[in-house]
Amino acid sequence: MKKFLLPALFAIAVLGAAPAALAQKMNSAKMATNAPAYKLQTQLSTLGWEGKAVTHGHNGTMQFTTGELLVKGNAIVGGTVTVDMKTLKATDIKDAETQGKFVGHMSSNQFFDVADNPISTFKIVSVTPLKGAAKDADNATIAGDMTIKGVTQRISFPAKVGVKGGVAAATGKVTIDRTKFGLTTMSKSLPDTIADKAIYDDFDLTFNIIAKN
């Protein structure tokens, strides 16, 4: 519980400054040039995932390894984060043997092929403010390049961002279509997949990123 409570408290404190951060135009790639880099705090940042099959589902965590958020004034204007795919685990599976089998399956070349693709990355290319966003709601659209299993795709998603007191934070949820990254095993969209064994194409990532100057 403490592992997730502390990052949440940091995010609440920083994201309270979101309206000031959005006072600047944040979607210009030019703003990221020479912007100070705030270092990702791996112990304060969290990444959760959730995937579902027709008959069941699992959720768990992965760990950020390195990263930075680029800040101009009070606005996040860019950045990159890296995820260690070897840290993937299902927190809803309590039995050690079942956990090992699940992680092994997800790490195989049928899915993330972790041996040959040990990291995934996301590089921010734009942060665009959402006009009229409520105080506690998402206040920006982040667009960037996601690389999973060696395949890079441009994605975008809403998030809440803010900068305050030398700390930058971004939190939100993004839905990923795994088939766009070559993860087609047991896809529900494939005609030869057995119906009750199918895994849905979409999975969710929930992130809470903290970076310090």
How would you sum up this structure, described in words?
Keywords: Signal. InterPro entries: Lipid/polyisoprenoid-bd_YceI (IPR007372), TTHA0802/YceI-like_sf (IPR036761). It comes from Hymenobacter lapidarius. This is Lipid-binding protein. Residues 1-23 form the signal peptide. The structure is a single chain. The protein is mainly β. The protein has a single domain, classed as Lipocalin, CATH 2.40.128. The protein is 14% helix and 48% strand. It is built from 3 helices and 9 strands. Strands 1, 2, 3, 4, 5, 6, 7, 8 and 9 form a 9-stranded antiparallel sheet that branches. The longest helix has 14 residues, at 2-15. The relative contact order is 0.22. Mean pLDDT is 86; it is low at 17-28.
Short synopsis of the structure:
This protein has 213 residues and is mainly beta. The protein is 14% helix and 48% strand.
